[in-house]
Amino acid sequence: MPLSVFEHEDPHQYLMGFGNYHQTEAINNTLPVAQNSPQKPAYGLYTEKLSGTAFTVPRADNQQTWLYRILPSAAHSKFEPLFAEELKQKLASDSQLQYTPDQVRFDPFDIEDSVDWIGGSRLVAGSGDPKTKTGLAIYVISAGKDMAARQAYYSADGDLLIVPNQGVLDLQTELGRLRVRPNEIAVVPRGIRYRVTLPDGPIRAFALELYQGHFKLPDLGIIGSNGLANARDFQVPVAAYEEDYDSDWSVVARFNGELFKVHQTHSPFDVVAWHGLYYPFKYDLGRFNSIGSVSYDHIDPSIYTVLTAPSDSPGVAVADFVFFPPRWLVMEDTFRPPWYHRNAMAEFSGLIDPGLKTPKVEGLTLGGIQIHNVMSGHGSDSQLFEAASNEKLVPVKEGTKIKAFMFETSSVLGITQWALVDSGKLQRDYQKSKWQPLKVHFKKPA
């Protein structure tokens, strides 16, 4: 059969809305009516259920999707370990993380032009354990070439939140295609097969792999029914199947922090139709509806949460994805930058938009990141403190020159040996240049 036969002329079509029950078919009348697993599905397809949560999870949190495909995903060879030592070092396990209270900042990590998405994934930080589905891992991913033509990849360890900061990603997933650009994010849930190609050349992205739970929209509370990221603005792929069952395909699996490979004679992207609540999606950060103070004080950065992964403790997240969009600052008698603070949460932050006028702020450059661990103090450098303390307070639009994101977690973050030493990107004078120049302004009253 021919390779890459899509019923849709444009594979980059989207359904709208996150958390909604979606259904899509590449061939009309594929989806069964009033049942999920008929004795003989339409067109000789197989039924496969993809479960992102346990069957018995309460209905509000249950995530399942029914797939109607040419061959089931179980039709493959035995899993064999992928023993490439270089890859194992890049995807170092939790036991190899180093835990430090030091505030750390890194120059931009190099783009590895000679590798693909799998080979270019580097663990930077993390905490927890995929075996017990606790915690998370954070990667910098760079690549200069497409994944192999008949290869797919998936992680059994967690959902992957992708934040590009250079280049464009074309994600071919089992459920359809997503094209992801800078200033957009994408989430590929645990277990979903996908392939990454690079239509515009080399890429670099940051990614958070969530071992525990799934991402959702944060509750709005007293904000009301609208604001922040609105469900209708999320984009979900439509079914776009591929016919190929006469070729050698490989599927690479990330399982408990290790890589395995299987071979099969059919494309993993052969889903003709699907319906359910468990699917990949993307979001344009330009659609974020920011909310802030219109009187005084700098509001907690939680007000900029795009997606959250709640823990079992009310109000505490395993991970939050936070984005600081262009926004008006109008607060009176207020120190407008973030106040100096120590958090119960750890912060991993960086800049994401290569098209901005200022790709650097306070020593942080586009492609670099900074980590402020649990209860380690941080805030503005001395120059920004002096300027913000003495500036004339008029309405000003913030975030037009730089755009920043943050992964925030209730876990203590460990950092890899590669990031701290081998990459050569650690800024060793971070504390000295950032906060030690702060002056004493205290004046004891007479």
UniProtKB/TrEMBL annotation:
The name this protein goes by in its record: Uncharacterized protein
Highest taxon above the source species: Eukaryota
